[in-house]
Design goal:
The protein is of the alpha+beta class and about 625 residues long. It has an eight-stranded antiparallel β-sheet with strand order 3-4-6-5-7-2-1-8. The longest helix is centred in the C-terminal third of the chain and has 17 residues.
C-alpha cells in the first residue's frame, strides 16, 4: 500500500466510483444495547465518526480503566490536537495499560505539541512499568524526532528487554548519532529479537531505502568512522543464524569494497530466498554507479533461481547494474518467452539500459503495445513516459486501449499541441472514473498554465465536478457497532484459495473490528473471487483486492484506519490505503518484517498456514475465493 497503494489521482477517482452503502447486515449477531458492550459500541462509533467532543472526554476521564484504555486508543485514531492534553493526563493513570494506551494515542496525533507531553514523562524517570516505558519511546519516535535523542540512547540500556527492543526501532526514526555505539553493542546480543532490531536500526540509520514507497525519515548524519563500524557489524551479521538479521544486513551493505562484495556474493547462495533478494538488490545499488563493472557471474546464475521473487529482483537489477558481460541477450530471451510478470520486468530493464537510444525504446514500446496482455501494453505507456519520449501515434493508439492502459498516456496526450477541445471533453466524459480523474487533474494544470483549449462551459463543469464533496457513506447504528464488537470477540479465521495453494489467516478482530468485519463482508459477498495479485514487491509484500486489477480501484467506499500496536512481522496482513482513512478492499501480506509500516497501516491479521504459498505468488496470479473458516 504498502503507501502500499500506488496511485496518482486515486482519491479523486475513488470519489467517482459508485458508493456501496454499508447497510445493516442480517447476518450480524443480535445484542442488547443495555449489555456490557454498549459503552464500547459508543466509543467505536465516536472513533469511526472521528468525533473528539465531550462524549469522548467522558470516557477518557471515567472510572472504568478498560474504557479509559479503549478511549485513549480511539483518541489516537481520531487524531485531534485537542486530545493531547487529556491523553497526557492519562500518562499518570494508576492503570499501566491505560498509560501505555495514552502514550500510543499521543504518538498517533500529528501535531508538533505531542512530543512535549511524551518527552516530559519519558525523561522524569518515574515510570515503573517496562511496557509503558516501551510505549513512550515508540511514541516519541513517531513524534519527537531529534529532541528525543537522549531519551532513546538511555532506553537502549534500560534494564528491561522490551524497552531496549523498542528503543532500537525508535533509534532510526529519531536519528541520533549517539545511538550508534550502543546499537553496535546490541547487534551481538544473545536475544535474536534484540539483535535483529539493532541491526535493522543501523541499516536505516545508514539511509538505506525501505521496501515500497512509504515515506520515512532519512538517514542519520553519521561520521565516516561510524559508517565503517556499522559496515563491519553488518558483514558479521550477514552470517547470523536468524534470517531476519541476514535480510537486514544484506540490504544495508551497498558499496563496492571487496569484503562487502564478497559477503553479498556469498549471501546470493543463502537458503532463504529473501536474503538472496536483498543481496541482489544491494549489488545492483552498488554497481549502478559509474566505475569498474561487477565481474561475478552470480546474477546470471540467479536468473534461473527457483523462487520467482529472486528471478524478478535479478531481472530488475540487470537493467541498471554495470557488468563485465552484457545482459541484453538474457533480458531479450526473458522478454520473448518468460511468464508475463517477468516479460514486463525484462522490458523495463531493457528500456533502462537503452536510456541513450530513444529509437530502440520507441520500438520496444511499440512491440509491447501489440501484446495480448494488458499489463505489457500498460508497460509500453509507462516506459514512454519514464523515458520522456515523444511518440504521438503510439500514444494515440494506447489512449483508445483498455482504461488500465489508457491511463498511462492520458497526461501526455493532453499536452499534445494538436489536441482539440472535443478530444479533451471526451476524456472528461470517459466512462472510466480513473480516466476522468486523471483528465480533470491534467486539464486543471493546463488551464492554470493558460494552455488548455477548453471552452468556458466545459471549464465550469470541470470546476463543479472537481470540487464536489464525496457522498457521505451510510452510517451505522449503535446497535450495529455493538453487534460487530460481539462478532469480533470470537477467533476469526479465513482461507484465501489461490492458484498456488491456500493461505490461512487469523484476523485481529479485537484490534481492528471494523477492518476485519469489512474484509469478511467483502469476502462473503464474493468480492475477491477471481481477483489478481496486482502487486508483488520481492521481499516486501504481495497485494490484492483491486477490482480493476491495476491497483487503482476499490469497493466504492472508504473505511477508517484502525492503527494498533500489532507490528508488521513476516506474514502480517495490512490494509492498503492512499492516505489516512482511505482504505477499502486492497490488502497486503508481508514477505518479511517491515517495521517502517508500524503505526502507519492497519495490521488486521497474520498468516497461520501457507506462507510458502505467499512466497510463490507472482503478479497476475488469481485468488479463487476468500471464505471464513469460522
Amino acid at each position: 500500500m504498502p503507501e502500499s497503494v500506488n496511485f496518482t489521482g486515486f482519491l479523486v477517482g475513488l470519489l467517482l466510483l459508485p458508493v456501496v452503502a454499508q447497510a445493516e447486515d442480517a447476518s450480524l449477531p443480535r445484542i442488547a444495547l443495555a449489555g456490557p458492550g454498549s459503552e464500547e459500541a459508543h466509543l467505536l462509533r465516536l472513533e469511526d465518526r472521528r468525533e473528539s467532543g465531550p462524549e469522548l472526554l467522558r470516557f477518557l476521564l471515567g472510572p472504568d480503566p478498560d474504557l479509559r484504555r479503549r478511549a485513549a486508543l480511539a483518541g489516537g485514531r481520531i487524531g485531534a490536537a485537542e486530545l493531547i492534553e487529556p491523553l497526557a493526563g492519562l500518562l499518570r493513570d494508576p492503570d499501566p495499560e491505560v498509560r501505555a494506551a495514552a502514550a500510543f494515542g499521543i504518538g498517533e496525533i500529528e501535531d508538533s505539541t505531542a512530543a512535549y507531553a511524551l518527552l516530559a514523562r519519558a525523561t522524569e524517570g518515574a515510570e515503573p512499568e517496562p511496557a509503558v516505558r516501551a510505549a513512550l519511546i515508540e511514541a516519541l519516535a513517531k513524534r519527537g524526532a531529534r529532541r528525543a535523542g537522549a531519551a532513546c540512547v538511555a532506553a537502549l540500556s534500560d534494564s528491561a528487554l522490551p524497552v531496549r527492543e523498542a528503543a532500537c526501532l525508535a533509534a532510526w526514526r529519531i536519528r541520533s548519532p549517539e545511538a550508534v555505539d550502543p546499537l553496535l553493542d546490541l547487534t551481538g546480543a544473545s536475544e535474536p529479537d534484540l539483535r535483529w532490531k539493532a541491526t535493522y536500526a543501523l541499516v536505516r540509520m545508514l539511509g538505506t531505502p525501505v521496501s515500497g514507497r512509504t515515506a520515512i525519515p532519512g538517514g542519520t548524519p553519521l561520521a565516516d568512522p561510524q559508517r565503517a563500524r556499522i559496515r563491519d557489524a553488518l558483514l558479521e551479521r550477514i552470517a547470523d543464524p536468524d534470517p531476519r538479521i541476514r535480510i537486514a544486513a544484506a540490504r544495508g551493505l551497498r558499496d563496492r569494497d571487496a569484503p562487502v562484495v564478497a559477503g553479498l556474493v556469498e549471501a546470493c547462495a543463502d537458503p532463504d530466498w529473501r536474503v538472496r533478494v536483498e543481496a541482489v538488490l544491494s549489488l545492483g545499488a552498488a554497481f549502478a554507479r559509474p566505475g569498474d563493472p561487477f565481474p561475478s557471474p552470480v546474477l546470471f546464475d540467479l536468473a534461473g533461481d527457483p523462487n520467482p521473487n529472486v528471478r524478478a529482483a535479478v531481472l530488475r537489477t540487470l537493467g541498471s547494474v554495470a557488468l563485465s558481460e552484457d545482459p541484453e541477450m538474457l533480458l531479450q530471451e526473458r522478454l520473448a518467452s518468460g511468464p508475463p510478470s517477468e516479460r514486463e520486468i525484462a522490458a523495463r530493464a531493457l528500456a533502462t539500459r537503452w536510456a541513450d537510444d530513444p529509437e530502440r525504446i520507441r520500438r520496444l514500446a511499440s512491440d509491447l503495445a501489440s501484446s495480448g496482455n494488458w499489463r505489457l501494453r500498460a508497460a509500453a505507456g509507462e516506459i514512454l513516459q519514464t523515458a520522456g519520449i515523444e511518440a504521438p501515434d503510439l500514444v494515440e493508439r494506447l489512449r483508445h486501449d483498455d482504461p488500465r492502459v489508457a491511463k498511462t498516456v492520458v497526461a501526455a496526450y493532453l499536452r499534445r499541441p494538436e489536441r482539440t477541445t472535443s478530444e479533451v471533453a471526451a476524456l472528461l466524459d470517459a466512462s472510466d472514473p480513473i480516466l476522468r480523474a486523471l483528465a480533470l487533474e491534467a486539464v486543471g494544470d493546463l488551464r492554470r498554465e493558460g494552455t488548455a483549449r477548453l471552452d468556458e462551459e466545459s471549464w465550469a463543469a470541470f470546476l463543479k465536478e472537481s470540487r464536489a464533496d464525496p457522498p457521505p457513506p451510510a452510517g451505522r447504528t449503535l446497535e450495529e457497532y455493538a453487534r460487530i464488537l460481539e462478532w469480533a470477540q470470537a477467533p476469526r479465521l479465513v482461507a484465501i484459495e489461490t492458484e498456488r495453494g491456500t493461505i490461512r489467516l487469523e484476523l485481529f478482530a479485537r484490534d481492528a473490528p471494523l477492518t476485519c468485519w469489512n474484509f469478511t463482508r467483502l469476502a462473503v459477498s464474493g468480492f475477491y473471487d477471481g481477483r489478481v495479485w496486482h502487486r508483488v514487491v520481492p521481499g516486501f509484500v504481495v497485494q490484492d483486492g483491486c477490482p480493476r486489477g491495476d491497483g487503482w480501484g476499490g469497493p466504492g467506499y472508504e473505511i477508517r484506519c484502525e492503527i494498533n500496536r500489532r507490528p508488521f512481522e513476516t506474514g502480517t496482513v495490512g490494509m492498503a490505503h492512499a492516505g489516512k482513512d482511505t482504505g477499502g478492499s486492497q490488502f497486503f501480506i508481508t514477505h518479511a518484517p517491515q517495521p517502517h509500516l508500524d503505526g502507519r497501516y492497519t495490521a488486521f491479521g497474520r498468516v497461520v498456514a501457507g506462507r510458502n504459498v505467499v512466497d510463490r505468488i507472482r503478479p497476475g496470479d488469481r485468488i479463487m475465493r476468500i471464505r471464513p473458516i469460522r
